[in-house]
Amino acid sequence: xxxxxxxxxxxELKGEVSIAGSKNSALACLAAASITPDENPIxxxxxxxxxxxxxxxxxxxxxxxxxxxENGILSMSGEINNSVxxxxxxxxLRGSMxxxxxxxxxxxxxxxxxxxxxxxxxxPIDIHIHGLRKLGVNFTSENGEIIVGKAEKGLEGCxxxxxxxxxxxxxxxxxxxxxxxxxxxxxxxxxxPEIVDMANLLSKMGARITGAGTDKITISGVDxxxxxxEHEVISDRIESGTLASIVAVCGGDVLLKHAIxxxxxxxxxxxxDIGVKIEASDESLRIISDRNLKPVEVEMMPFPGIxxxxxxxxxxxxxxxxxxxxIVDLVxxxxxxxxxxxxxxxxxxxxSENNLIIHGGKKLRGCHVFGNDIRAVSTLIGAGxxxxxxxxxxxxxxxxxxxxxxxxKIRKLGGSVEIVAMDI
Length: 424
Ligand code: UD1
What we know:
Layout: E1 2-8, E2 13-18, H1 23-34, E3 42-45, H2 51-62, E4 66-70, E5 73-77, E6 84-85, H3 87-90, H4 98-105, E7 109-113, H5 126-135, E8 138-141, E9 146-150, E10 159-161, H6 167-178, E11 183-187, H7 193-204, E12 208-210, E13 216-220, E14 229-232, H8 237-250, E15 252-257, H9 261-274, E16 277-281, E17 284-289, E18 297-300, H10 311-320, E19 324-329, H11 338-344, E20 348-352, E21 355-359, E22 368-370, H12 374-386, E23 390-394, H13 396-402, H14 406-412, E24 416-422
Parallel strand pairs: 2-15, 3-14, 6-7, 10-11, 18-19, 22-23
Antiparallel strand pairs: 1-23, 1-24, 3-5, 4-5, 7-9, 8-9, 11-13, 12-13, 15-17, 16-17, 19-21, 20-21
Helix pairs in contact: 1-2, 1-4, 1-7, 4-6, 5-6, 6-7, 8-9, 8-10, 8-12, 10-12, 12-13
């Protein structure tokens, strides 16, 4: 018997649901909270109860941190007293990349398995290594399964240019630079809301950071950061974008509570181009769709562009648009694994390198499909909701890694999605 997701075709989605705390921000904030040895805890609110967070907590505990996580509230205290993150743990999630920055900022010694996460193409860590090396980490192994490095003389502030505005590298270099002597200037950094969230938490802990959210971040190192701080993690703009896209294809009228409009503006603008009506207020988005969707041409970009994580959701909408759409994603080469699965369901899409052409207006029909990453699975759930008949999706593990209670949320809106054990 195996757990799968069973989805049955629905009419319209109606009602309201709350958007969870951001997975990617929560991972970055857990990393930030871990670099103070203070016994006075840091309390993080709005932490999503998903398996990537549980894995991150598990690794932090193995390094000596005391972590309590209940009902979305996480409390963390104590010192990191061990520098080893084994590959069998690090490979479970991409967020384990933060142990490079955490260990550089705390013990100064890194013995860390390579990060894992979604199989969406090459995910090198050369920008992380380049920056940490400039700050004073001497790497003796960086290309294999295990990354080994030591900051023998401590960390020293410097100027670092990132050849690409990598989210993970920006966070790691902020972590390390808060504990370096003197001033560090990071240029061509990522501007994602998750970077700003992490910088806000670090500032509450006593770090001196300016420029987060722009392409230049300046950090003046401090001797020690402190605990005794509370921080509420931002809501998940990828979950809100994903749900909005599902409402777009199903039709209906749904209120997404606790969605931050500014973080969602790139996808809001695209949804409006597609023909969806959006009403944004301070902390919510109302999505109204009559399923009359127009085709789009879109390229996935770092923030404030449209997030690569929403690529498959946009493709799903394009399958229902009247006309041909194009999606280009140069951020990750292999975020297109869902294409074959949607085509199996009746979509008509052609992929050439990183360029996807979607011939819209095709009726989807339910069948057995495979979701190979977090975003692919949520997209296939959306596809199942508009397909004729029943859709069985393999990939529960990815759903549980990325979205808390996604099935329950869709059911609350009137859709039929269940995690069931099946003999397949
Ligand atoms: C984070 C998010 C992921 C999101 C991505 C881009 C987490 C846990 N994951 O991943 O959901 O899709 O940002 O918004 O927060 N690159 C290099 N060398 C490096 C680092 C990155 O070449 O050292 C390249 C990558 O291959 C990719 C691009 O930079 O082509 C963007 O990657 P990056 O922003 O680093 O993504 P992650 O931080 O891994």
